[in-house]
Amino acid sequence: MAAGGSAAAALGAWLVFEDEAGFAMTPPTKHTWARRGRTPVIRVRGRSRRRLSIAALACYKPEHRSRLIYRRRMDDGNRDGRKSFAWTDYRDLLQAAHAQLGGPIVLVWDNLNTHLAAGMRTYIAARDWLTVYQLPSYAPDLNPVEGIWSVLRRTSQANTAFTDPEHLIHSIRSGLHDIQYRSDLIDGCLAGTGLTPPSGSP
């Protein structure tokens, strides 16, 4: 993991962590106040099993405000349809991030099979602005994007009775939008992993 940070510093690059998560119509629960003996009940619609997938990048660079860049994908509701990101979706996300960040990227992500697809490997090899490191297996605690998901589930998602998939999409988009304007929170997610930011960060 230190290699990723060292490479980013040496190249003057953004150190970027990626992770993906799925969100369903059933909300995560959170502690709340209630009258003694009156357990709060949130009724949710059970008809829709559609899930929203989010792929997000937490981006860090010395002397720059930390950034959060993401893309969403709603499954089509068909039993045989694709419910997660294809390698081409990750390609497009990285291409957009490169344009937004305006510089080289040192990417750190896990060993998801889509990340290791032949098309993805070919794409990475052909981009001199992109260097990739794999996280160790079963090491979500080293990925600051996991902290982003935790914040999202404890705030805009918690105890919410979603009326339909569009309500779910709007809620997640609003929650992520709030996080994007909180660079201190994005920094805190990196600090929570025990990793240090690239050398020279403020």
UniProtKB/TrEMBL annotation:
Pfam families tied to this protein = DDE_3
Query: Origin, by domain of life?
Result: Bacteria
Domain Tc1-like transposase DDE as annotated: residue spans: 15-168
Q: Where are the transmembrane segments?
A: none
Which InterPro entries is this protein grouped with? RNaseH_sf, Tc1-like_DDE_dom
Please give the Gene Ontology molecular function terms for this protein: nucleic acid binding
How is this protein named in the record? IS630 family transposase
Q: Identify the species of origin.
A: Streptomyces alboniger
